[in-house]
Amino acid sequence: HGKLTVFSVKAMLATMCGGKILDKLRYIFSQISDSNGLMIFTKFDQFLKEVLKLPTAVFEGPSFGYTEHSVRTCFPQQFFLRFTCYSYFLLVFFGLFFFPHLPQVFHPVECSYCRCESMMGFRYRCQQCHNYQLCQNCFWRGHANGPHSNQHQMKEHSSW
Fold it and tell me: Which domain holds residue 91?
């Protein structure tokens, strides 16, 4: 309620910063484990809740339900790093881990609103309007024109 914890800041910075994903996972594990190298589920649960706030902050809340029980069944304590390196569950968070590199992604298409001839970062494509695409700036500002509506479902693209 108006306050940030040190843990929240560490979780956000570890998620948003550039770097090797394995190094990031090691750092995160150091924050959610005890001195014996065992994951503390309450800290892991807290970390996941903090990370899930990131997409919500840009109005892209998670499309799945989160429960502590599902995490306990998916992540055995002693196998965190090995398991997350190969786990499908981690793919949910890849968007967040690659977020710092998105400004470098180039899309050679025109934005349907501002008419810029190429896009850097995210590209959003309408699922209802034929060939309607927005750059991330126009999408995040809620711009729409022609037959397109902000109520239409958009698909996010981070690669060309």
Answer: 6-99
Whether residue 1 is contained in a domain is answered as: no
Distance of CA 105 to the CA centre of its chain: 16
Cα–Cα dist 18/82, whole Å: 21
Which whole-number Å values give the CA distances from 153 to 54, 139, 145, in the listed order?
20, 12, 15
Under 8 Å between Cβ of 75 and 39: yes
Q: Are 119 and 111 in contact (CB under 8 A)?
A: yes
Q: Answer yes or no: pTM beyond 0.70.
A: no
Does 81 reside within a domain?
yes
Do the beta carbons of residue 50 and residue 11 sit within 8 Å?
yes
110's enclosing H/E stretch is: none
CA dist., res. 76 & res. 35, Å (int): 17
When comparing pLDDT for 10 and 96, which is higher? Answer: 10
- Looking at the structure, do residues 34 and 94 belong to the same domain, yes or no? yes
